[in-house]
Structures are given as structure tokens and as C-alpha cells.
Amino acid sequence: RPRSHTVTTTSSSFTANLSGSSSTLAYDREFLRTLPGLLMVTEIVLGLLVWTLIAGTEYFLYPAFGWVMFVAVFYWVLTVFFLIIYMTMTYTRIPQVPWTTVGLCFNGSAFILYLIAAIVDASSVTKELDSHNYNSWAASSFFAFVVTSCYAGNTYFSFISWRSRTLQ
């Protein structure tokens, strides 16, 4: 007796949405015109200054400057990563991630750790320690405090965004 072969196919909405939306990346030009976008670009530029000013010295001889380098490079890389996410609107393609909470945690931790690093940087700068690197370390300390204030501003904006999401 002949057998009947029936094939049933199904597709999930996740797969259909993923294949349909991954063909082009969006580009949000307006993000850089917002205050959080401008603060993020400032964090990247001045954060780069912080770690290049220290990296050009014999910072590895002094553990305090190693800590400042770690914080500056770590948050510089993450800030570039988040700028790319916001510029390409990748956050709209991954709705499972609570982006307002992630932004708040990122900016809050960056503010706290950069504040600690800036204080450590400023308190470690003395002419007696190494007069040859004094100017670079002093400049990195100044810019570390400026970057800290930028992260404080972005923490505030992230909190406002997070709070408006939780109240809905």
C-alpha cells in the first residue's frame, strides 16, 4: 500500500524578523546632535587624551597610573562600542536587552570609576615622583576630571530615560 508523505513547515516570527531586518543598518545622524551624543563624543576624545598622556610616560613603574590607564582604556573602548550601537540603531534590533538599564549601569559605573581614577591620578602627581613626566600626568589628571563630569552628565540623562521607562 502506498504511503502518504506530508511535510509541514513552520517559521518563527523571530527568524522572519531577523532575516528581514538585517539587510541594512540604520544610521542615526541626529544622535550626535543630542546632548548625550555630544557628551559621548567628548568622552571619547578626552578619554583618548587621558590614556595617551599617561601611556607616553613610564606609568608602569607606578601602580596608581596603571589603575588610571585601566579605567581610561576600558571605558574608552566601551564608549566607542556604545557610540556605534547608538549610531547604527542596533539597540532597536535587539529588544530583549533593557537598553535604558544597560545605559544607566554603564554610565553610572563609568562615572564612579573615573572619579576614583581621577582622584588617584591627581593625588599621584608630584614633581618629586618623576619631574620628567609631571606635565603629562598633570594634564591627564585635569582631563580625567573633565571626562568624569561628562560621564556624570550622561548618567543623569540615562537615569531620566530609565525612570521614564519604569514609570510606563
From TrEMBL:
<dbReference type="Pfam" id="PF01284">
    <property type="entry name" value="MARVEL"/>
</dbReference>
<dbReference type="InterPro" id="IPR050578">
    <property type="entry name" value="MARVEL-CKLF_proteins"/>
</dbReference>
<dbReference type="GO" id="GO:0019911">
    <property type="term" value="F:structural constituent of myelin sheath"/>
</dbReference>
<feature type="domain" description="MARVEL">
    <location>
        <begin position="31"/>
        <end position="163"/>
    </location>
</feature>
<keyword id="KW-0812">Transmembrane</keyword>
<feature type="transmembrane region" description="Helical">
    <location>
        <begin position="97"/>
        <end position="117"/>
    </location>
</feature>
<dbReference type="InterPro" id="IPR013295">
    <property type="entry name" value="MAL"/>
</dbReference>
<feature type="transmembrane region" description="Helical">
    <location>
        <begin position="137"/>
        <end position="159"/>
    </location>
</feature>
<dbReference type="GO" id="GO:0042552">
    <property type="term" value="P:myelination"/>
</dbReference>
<feature type="transmembrane region" description="Helical">
    <location>
        <begin position="35"/>
        <end position="54"/>
    </location>
</feature>
<keyword id="KW-1133">Transmembrane helix</keyword>
<dbReference type="GO" id="GO:0016020">
    <property type="term" value="C:membrane"/>
</dbReference>
<feature type="transmembrane region" description="Helical">
    <location>
        <begin position="60"/>
        <end position="85"/>
    </location>
</feature>
<keyword id="KW-0472">Membrane</keyword>
<dbReference type="InterPro" id="IPR008253">
    <property type="entry name" value="Marvel"/>
</dbReference>
<protein>
    <submittedName>
        <fullName>CKLF8 protein</fullName>
    </submittedName>
</protein>
